[in-house]
Design goal:
By secondary structure, this protein is α+β, with helices and mostly antiparallel strands. The protein has 2 domains: 187 residues, Sandwich (Jelly Rolls); 142 residues, Orthogonal Bundle (Arc Repressor Mutant, subunit A). It has 13 helices and 11 strands. The strands form 2 sheets. It has a 6-stranded antiparallel sheet, with helices on both faces. The protein has a 5-stranded antiparallel sheet with strand order 2-5-10-7-8. 41% of the residues are buried. Keywords: DNA-binding, Transcription, Transcription regulation.
């Protein structure tokens, strides 16, 4: 077991040694503490107390270390925090978990002091496919989920008794933790349900295409189907696998992107109409109605309440899973998909 207390000036060194290389920003009076147990050569479990901070793994850092397969699974035990990776933004709520990887840039903001229980491991040790792992990054693993409760309880107990285990037992305990984590992550990756079959792969390609083309006002189900060489009927059938329709998924992703921009001080100079246009809403009144229905307030009201200077984005948004209730088919793209 290693125990280390450190200042803000030492945080980057500590992150590099016990987690992964990042760039940090802290208050001058920052103090942190980390206790680490090694579970073999490539797995550790640690408990940390963080001060207020902003932590970034930049695209340049990723490019310099393309073979870095380090991954972190953090259970948030207290305080407030946010993670942004894979174009997803997730709020760290009490006892929820979030996965981050070294292979792509990410950002973490902790506007308050916080505590975490972290499993650090090599990506190759996790018994999941590459697509499943990437899809699971920056998604909230709800504390109420039975699999998450099992994993959290196991990691908490493992942290408490790790010093009493033999070296072989620590290795076995680390692999058992990764097996439990794989069980948790399978529940958090709806876009790859159905295994490695062509249906799951095609759906994942369509979801990625939608997220990459939110600003296109002409994006419709017909265009999505044409680009992926399927019929409109089949496109609807594929989206039913994740309990939604193409139009509903596009609207939810556009609202998520708008909410993130409205929450980010870096975009405070933009008008609400500029943000609406940037995510594909070209009817401001329709955007206002859709946003108010989804989040309970107007876009302008959300900005006033959440967007402020400080340690970075004031409210990095968790990606909302598609609703699974029965719903009629909707339009895809344009004014209608933003307003209905």
């Amino acid at each position: 077991m290693q125990i280390l207390e450190y200042s803000g000036e030492e945080l980057e060194r500590v992150a590099r040694e016990f987690f992964m290389p990042v760039i940090t920003r802290t208050r001058t009076d920052y103090r942190g503490r980390v206790t680490v147990h090694e579970l073999g050569e490539a797995v550790t479990v640690s408990r940390s107390h963080w001060g207020q901070m902003s932590v970034v793994r930049t695209a340049r850092m990723v490019a310099r270390a393309p073979s870095d397969d380090t991954m972190l699974f953090c259970i948030h035990l207290g305080g407030r925090g946010y993670v942004h990776q894979q174009d997803r933004l997730v709020e760290l709520t009490a006892d929820a978990g979030v996965l981050s990887e070294a292979r792509s840039s990410w950002e973490r903001v902790s506007p308050t002091e916080s505590q975490t229980l972290t499993l650090r491991f090599s990506r190759a040790l996790l018994p999941l496919r590459t697509g499943e792992i990437t899809e699971a990054c920056a998604r909230s693993m709800a504390s109420a989920a039975p699999a998450m409760q099992i994993l959290a309880g196991y990691l908490d107990r493992l942290f408490a008794v790790a010093d009493d285990l033999t070296a072989p037992q620590r290795i076995d305990a680390g692999q058992a933790a990764l097996d439990l984590l794989a069980m948790v992550l399978r529940d958090a990756t709806p876009s790859v349900l159905g295994g490695e079959g062509p249906e799951a792969v095609l759906l994942e390609m369509m979801l990625v295409y939608v997220r990459d083309h939110l600003a296109d006002p002409n994006l419709r189900v017909e265009e999505l189907a044409r680009r992926h060489h399927v019929s409109v009927r089949r496109a609807y059938t594929l989206f039913e696998r994740i309990g939604t329709t193409p139009g509903a998924y596009l609207r939810e992703q556009r609202l998520l992107a708008a909410r993130a921009m409205l929450s980010d001080p870096r975009h405070c100079w933009l008008r609400v109409s500029d943000i609406a246009n940037a995510v594909g809403f070209h009817d401001l009144s329709g955007f206002d109605r859709a946003f108010r229905r989804q989040y309970g307030m107007t876009p302008a009201g959300w900005r006033r309440e959440r967007c402020h200077a400080g340690f970075g984005p004031a409210d990095l948004t968790q990606e909302m899973p598609p609703r699974r209730a029965n719903r009629p088919r909707q339009g895809f793209g344009g004014v209608n998909s933003g307003a209905t």
